[in-house]
Amino acid sequence: MADTFQCTLVTPEEAVFDEEVTYVTFPAWDGQQGVMRGQSPLLTKLGIGPMRLDLADGASRWYLVERGFAQVVDDALTLITERATRDTDLVTDGIDEALADANRRVVGGDDSGGDRRQAEIDQQRAMAVKAMAARAAGSR
Fold it and tell me: Buried-most residue among 14, 26, 27, 38 (CB within 10 A)?
């Protein structure tokens, strides 16, 4: 298929995905990034958020990715991430409470400590889980 390219998604524990795709959108550190066949070489830092993989058969697959790096070389996209969770495996129970707790910690934390950074990471993850859950509910 002329419009596809190889996409590989890897965590420290496993190779999560390794297939031909037609399009990928993922959270870069500075916003959402899209990749299609013919993309110029790219190396970017990943953020925390939803990643959509459009498969060659027309289906889409969603993952929550959490930090790492993405690289495009020779029409192949490789994403190396700390954690990748399939949308069907996300746990949404208690997510509102987790987000409220992270928000309190961000607002109340001091700017110099690692606790504030962890609170911001927890906040980003909770917001991404909520967004993915809302997208899944809307597609039913």
Answer: 26
pLDDT tens digits along 14-70: 999 999 999 999 999 999 999 999 999 999 999 999 999 999 999 999 999 999 999
Q: What is the CATH number of domain 5-88?
A: 2.60.15.10
Residue 100: CB atoms within 10 Å: 12
- The answer to whether 15 touches 80, Cβ cutoff 8 Å, is no
Q: Report d(CA 140, CA 129) in Å as an integer.
A: 17
Please report, for the chain, the start and end positions of each structural domain, with discontinuous segments joined by +. 5-88, 90-138
128 versus 116: which is more confidently predicted?
128
